[in-house]
Amino acid sequence: MTAEETPLESKADLNAELQALLVRAYENGVDVEGAFDCRNGVEHPDWDVVVTEVEKNGSE
């Protein structure tokens, strides 16, 4: 963790961090849809992350 990073302590924190990451990538032309393998070495579990665009409801 770098000095600028804040610790994630809840699912809400994780969601906010993921939202910020996805928006930043999208605004920089990265295709964020699809599946991503997150391999993390022996100390941490590996994850498979799937990102799909969802239709906005009328209130957003």
Q: Which spans have pLDDT < 50 for at least 5 consecutive residues?
A: none
Largest sheet: spatial strand order: 1-2
Structural class: alpha+beta
Task: Enumerate how many helices there are, as a single number.
Answer: 1
Total E-strand runs: 2
How far apart are the first and last residues' alpha carbons, in Å? 33 Å
Order of helices and strands: HEE
Portion in helices: 25-40%
In this structure, how is the largest beta sheet organized? 2 strands, antiparallel
Oligomeric state, counting identical vs distinct chains: single chain
Basic shape: globular
Mean model confidence by pLDDT: 91
Spatial extent as radius of gyration: 14 Å
Word description of this protein:
The chain is of the alpha+beta class. Helices cover 28% and strands 17% of the residues. The chain has 1 helix and 2 strands. A two-stranded antiparallel ribbon has the order 1-2. The longest helix is centred in the N-terminal third of the chain and has 17 residues, at 11-27. The chain is globular, with a radius of gyration of 14 Å. The model has no long low-confidence stretch (mean pLDDT 91).
